């Protein structure tokens, strides 16, 4: 008789070392210069956009923001997917949308909740979504996307389509009950879904050492009978290779996969958080110097003679101008029409919605000084 408390730690798959050198040549992906440079440019674009929008929130120009500092290598996972694969994100996956073609205007319009926002101003900033790009709209509650992803994957399987669901989440979400329900359903129903865990060390302010005792999140996948892999989350090609292989398992064999991406959240959790209340600046600076995913990938590109200092400076200058231009345009636009408060839920609005709409109209007419209609599309004339 023997009680088992632990097993050998699950290894971490890596393609490049910290200096961008390929460890095992057989694992280096055979991709074109254009393919690799696009990933890198998207990583830089995301980094610059994050900086500008973070500062905009600090200036009171938008209400909220979350950056991707230190985690940009997850864009490698987007590059490994088919454009028809459906994405369920958490909130730090804007790089996936960027890779798929979400424009800078789309990002800015959403963060400003203006009249051109696809979501019509109904979501707080960074809660993106795009039907065109197969990216389900992000919702704030932690882990709700996980069981939704399992259900959507089962529906996809029944449809006969050769695609899968990609579901992103943080290691903090793995402490929610929804995580366990989702994995169990996916395993028992053989759903074509990839669960991509961004283990960045912190569930807001809770470090992983205080959140779980076992061998990370990957060990839980094995417990549910799911194909599992742990990768270096700062290694673009490790993320790319693992996602590509995971997708093949999901699509061809209807097997769910759990992929744990080990990285480090350099940024604060969000603009509502001050991470130096629970970790030291010295720790953050150490990680920034130790392993920056953008720098690591740039070294790989330079070794291939696919990138140069001149190209770096030129692209950073030009993309910063593009981001600022989109930012400036979005800031000047009006807010969506007030009538959008009542649209898109019912085909024919029921009486309670009609009553609410009339009540709002009455309030606006009675207290016009409290409702700056000039800031809204149509100035409330269509109410």
What would you say this structure looks like, in words?
The model has no long low-confidence stretch (mean pLDDT 96). The chain is built from 13 helices and nine strands. The strands form two sheets. Strands 1-8-9-5-4-2-3 form a seven-stranded parallel beta sheet, with helices on both faces. 43% of the residues lie in helices and 9% in strands. Strand 4 (165-170), helix 6 and strand 5 form a beta-alpha-beta unit. With 383 residues, it is an alpha/beta fold. Belongs to the BCKDHA family. Its main location: mitochondrion. Its cofactor is thiamine diphosphate. It is found in: Mitochondrion matrix. InterPro entries: Alpha-ketoacid_DH_E1_comp, DH_E1, THDP-binding.
Q: Taking all residues together, what is the mean pLDDT?
A: 96
- Percent in helix: 40-55%
Give, in order, the helices and strands. Answer: EHHEHHEHEHEEEHHEHEHHHH
**Low-confidence spans: pLDDT under 50, at least 5 residues?**
none
Q: What is the total tally of β strands?
A: 9
* Structural shape: globular
Instruction: Kindly name the structural category.
Output: alpha/beta
Count of helix runs: 13
Strand order of the largest sheet: 1-8-9-5-4-2-3
Q: What's the alpha carbon Rg, rounded to whole Å?
A: 22 Å
Strand content: 5-15%
Task: Profile the largest sheet.
Answer: 7 strands, parallel
Distance between the termini: 74 Å
Family: Belongs to the BCKDHA family.
GO cellular component, one term: mitochondrial matrix
GO molecular function: branched-chain 2-oxo acid dehydrogenase activity; metal ion binding
EC number: 1.2.4.4
């Amino acid at each position: 008789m023997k009680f088992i408390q632990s097993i050998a730690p699950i290894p971490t798959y890596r393609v490049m070392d910290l200096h961008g050198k390929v460890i095992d040549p057989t694992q280096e992906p055979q991709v074109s210069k254009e393919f690799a440079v696009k990933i890198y440019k998207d990583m830089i674009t995301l980094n610059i956009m994050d900086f500008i929008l973070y500062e905009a929130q600090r200036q009171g120009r938008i209400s909220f923001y979350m950056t991707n500092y230190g985690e940009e290598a997850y864009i490698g996972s987007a590059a490994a997917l088919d454009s028809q694969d459906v994405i369920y994100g958490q909130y730090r996956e804007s790089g996936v949308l960027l890779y798929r073609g979400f424009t800078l205007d789309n990002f800015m319009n959403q963060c400003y909740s203006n009249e051109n926002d696809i979501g019509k101003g109904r979501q707080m900033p960074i809660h993106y979504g795009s039907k065109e790009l197969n990216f389900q709209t992000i919702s704030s509650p932690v882990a709700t996307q996980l069981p939704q992803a399992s259900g959507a994957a089962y529906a996809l399987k029944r449809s006969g389509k050769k695609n899968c669901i990609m579901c992103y989440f943080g290691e903090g979400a793995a402490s929610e009950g929804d995580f366990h329900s989702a994995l169990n359903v996916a395993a028992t129903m053989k759903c074509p879904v990839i669960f991509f865990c961004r283990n960045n060390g912190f569930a807001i302010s809770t470090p992983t050492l205080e959140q779980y005792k076992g061998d990370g999140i990957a060990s839980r996948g094995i417990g549910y009978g799911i194909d599992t892999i742990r990768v270096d989350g700062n290694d673009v090609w490790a993320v790319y290779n693992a996602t590509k292989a995971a997708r093949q398992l999901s699509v061809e064999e209807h097997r769910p996969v759990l992929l744990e991406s080990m990285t480090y959240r350099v940024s604060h959790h969000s603009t509502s958080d001050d991470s130096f209340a629970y970790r030291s600046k010295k720790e953050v600076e150490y990680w920034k110097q130790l392993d920056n995913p953008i720098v690591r990938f740039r070294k790989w590109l330079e070794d291939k003679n696919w990138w140069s200092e001149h190209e770096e400076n030129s692209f950073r200058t030009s993309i910063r101008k593009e981001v600022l231009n989109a930012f400036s345009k979005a800031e000047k636009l009006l807010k969506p029409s007030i009538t959008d408060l009542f649209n898109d839920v019912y085909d024919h609005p029921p009486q309670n919605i009609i009553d609410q709409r009339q009540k709002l109209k009455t309030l606006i007419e009675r207290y016009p000084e409290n409702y700056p209609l000039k800031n809204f599309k149509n100035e409330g004339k269509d109410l």
